[in-house]
Amino acid sequence: MLNFELYNPTNYVFGKGQTAKLTDLVPKNTKILLAFGGGSIFKNGVYHQVKAALPNTEIVEFGGIEPNPRYETLMKAVEIIRTENIGFILAVGGGSVIDGVKFISAAVKFDGNPMEILHKRLLIKDLTQVIPFGTVLTLPATGSEMNSGAVITIDATQEKLSFGGSALFPKFSVCDPTVIESLPKRQIQNGIVDAYTHVMEQYLTYPTDALLQDRIAESILQTLVEIGPDVAENPTDYKLASNFMWCATMALNGLIQKGVPTDWATHMIGHELTALYEIDHARTLAIIGPNLYRVMFDTKKEKLAQYGERVFNIQGSSVEEKAEKAIEATVAFFHKMGMLTRLSENTENYDETADFIVKRFEERGWLAMGEKQNITPEKVREIVEMSY
Predict the structure, then answer these.
(1) Do residues 286 and 195 lie in contact, with contact meaning Cβ atoms separated by under 8 Å?
(2) Which H or E run contains 47?
(3) Is residue 58 helix, strand or coil?
(4) Which of 111, 190, 283, 312 has the fewest CB atoms within 10 Å distance of its CB?
(5) DSSP readout, 189-241?
């Protein structure tokens, strides 16, 4: 097992009716920015729950944070915080709203051009240089409610870039599973596949004798396979909804990545497909992931075989046979979750995609990715072209 440090200060407040606890969670005598997305919080009742819990709090509202939060939009919120002397941010929404608030938190006091936070993938560690924030989760998927990472899109350059740092954990996150009752089926399907791929990025690498981490990761995958199709059809079932929400958090709150190598190349390539074609984030992962496993088969086959045995009960006469069956089982699960796993099924103009992504990665100096730093630009080309 690799050396590691585990730090996660987020107060995770889970269950029915927990939004009422905002009264005690939000700092007193502090002006708050209430940040949200396209307005679904007004339809599902969450906005009214939040306002009811904070009757005596001075609130400035900022809506319109996009599903892939735009740098340009977020900078408007940064200016409001500076002008209004706001001391705390409350993110009410899914991962995009929470990610956007992480950027806002980091940008307000940043010395320099805030775009550097993204282009240089800076680690924000100084708590005195951020605006503290909490979250009320409305869409399980990204795990952003209990981690310190974020992904932001720059509209002007069609780039989707990640950043993070230990100062960017939410102070608290209120997670009431009943919020998924009003979500469109497509969003729930996306949330399941997003969480699933988060686990795979940390688990599907190579053996490092991290026995407990492997089994925790496998248990999350098994649970998502078991409940995924049903929760998309029956979001009012509290058993399904609560397990879905907890799985999505556990998939990316830092626990299963400790002591193990991680990959993240599926996400790096997938982000480019979203930036180029506005394909839903989870759907880009379903397009790229299985083909990345195929191209990098030799270095991943041992974990692929283990994954196949433990998650899908796959049998075979060799490691290679079990590993190949595991990839096919993954694609079948993605199809069951409503994913279209080829780029050509998601957009018409894809012919030059591989060239564009390879050029962009080379310009950024991303020449060695993956858990063994062996995913080169040419491997990226092969993965993307296989995904057409």
Answers:
(1) no
(2) helix 46-53
(3) coil
(4) 111
(5) HHHHHHHHHHHHHHHSS---S-HHHHHHHHHHHHHHHHHHHHHHH-TT-HHHH
Helix (H) or strand (E) holding 308: helix 297-312
Whether the pLDDT of residue 39 is over 90: the answer is no
Q: Of all residues in the chain, what percent carry a pLDDT higher than 90?
A: 99
Contact 136, 46 (CB under 8 A): yes
**CB atoms closer than 10 angstroms to residue 48:** 12
pLDDT score recorded for residue 149: 97
Tokens at 197, concatenated: 């791929």
Q: Return the closest-CA partner of residue 342 out of 279, 251, 297.
A: 279
Q: Is 112 left (phi over 0), alpha (psi -120 to 50) or beta?
A: left
Residues 122-138: pLDDT tens digits?
999 999 999 999 999 99
Q: How many CB atoms lie within 10 A of CB 143?
A: 23
C-alpha separations of 2 from 260, 304, 383 in Å:
6, 20, 28
Q: How far apart are the first and last CA of the chain?
A: 37
Inform me whether the pLDDT recorded for 275 exceeds 90: yes
What is the residue type of 231?
V
Q: Let me know: does 269 contact 292? Beta carbons within 8 Å.
A: yes
H or E element that contains 11 = strand 11-14
C-alpha 130/C-alpha 109 separation (Å) is 6
DSSP 123-165: B---GGGS--EEEEESS-SS-GGGSSEEEEEEGGGTEEEEEE-
The rounded distance, in Å, linking the Cα atoms of 237 and 260 is 35
CA atoms of 271 and 351, how far apart (whole Å): 18
